[in-house]
Amino acid sequence: MEINVAIGGGQKMSLTGAILVYQGGHEVFAAWHAANAAEDSAAPYLGEAEPLTTEFLRRLSEGLGAYVAPEILPASVLVRTSELLVWWTRAQRRVLFFSDQSEAGELSAKQYPVPAMVFKVSGGNLSIRALAKDARPTAETKLMTAPFWNCGESGDVCLGTMRVPESSSVDAIEGWERGFFQSEFTHAYGAARLTNFPGGFLPLWRSLAGSKQLFPVQYLTDARETLRQFVERR
Fold it and tell me: Are residues 99 and 48 part of one domain?
């Protein structure tokens, strides 16, 4: 077996110890063994087992990127883990941009009502859903398809040239929303039925251009999943 490890910055690495897992019957525990240098310059050897401490595990998880720094969570945040950030936004009016190269180019840079939405960021990817009610969703809230181009049936967003934050921290929420809404909607992504409005997608947004009313949620289509399923789906 060949193992390759790539470490940025050209850092010199040395063995400091190892975590060994012991099992006897149904009992399992892990212990830390510090690496000791051999006097004859041979390979280092592991010392006696030492119990793992909470501080050691915290530093280890931080080094592996699994540590989440303490944050004050705004009311909009629904889920926060080391790998996942999910939040919701209220129904509001936003300026939308459509590619000049698409048949929707005439609709670009106008204000439109948009429904309440759920955003999910995981592994640098963005997924979104719409909400039928302008209220904080619960785990069993049924989600709707986001009525936007660039969004697939699963809710995954085709990022393309979208400018998005490198971080998935709470401080990056505004950047993710701005990246989505300030990018150009260019095409229908996948086979998702984005709306049940008579005539389809373009007639819907033509009817909403400049409207001061709320988004007509009766024209949203069922995404066939709950918030819990959306959050747990990888």
Answer: no
State pTM to two decimals: 0.74
Q: What is the pLDDT of residues 193-229, one digit of tens each?
A: 999 999 999 999 999 999 999 999 999 999 999 999 9
> Contact, 31 vs 19, CB < 8 A?
yes
Looking at the structure, tell me whether residues 97 and 172 fall in a common domain.
yes
Q: Are strands 45-51 and 27-36 parallel, antiparallel or unpaired?
A: antiparallel
Query: What is the DSSP secondary-structure string of 139-207?
Result: TTPEEE---STTB-TTSBB--TT----S--SGGGHHHHHHHHHTSEE-S--SS-----STT-HHHHHHH
Q: In terms of residue numbers, what domain contains 19?
A: 15-63
Domain presence at residue 222:
yes
Q: Is residue 120 part of a domain?
A: yes
Distances (CA, A) of 102 to 69, 107, 152, 184, 188: 43, 10, 18, 10, 10
Number of domains in the chain: 2
Could you tell me if residue 2 is inside a domain?
Answer: no
Of the candidates 87, 178, 72, the one whose C-alpha atom is nearest the C-alpha of residue 136 is 87
User: Cα–Cα distances in Å, from 192 out to 144, 148, 156, 181, 232?
Assistant: 11, 10, 11, 19, 20
- Tell how strand 92-98 and strand 184-185 pair up: parallel
Let me know: does 197 contact 203? Beta carbons within 8 Å. Answer: yes
Given pLDDT bands bounded at 50, 70 and 90, which one contains residue 89?
A: very high
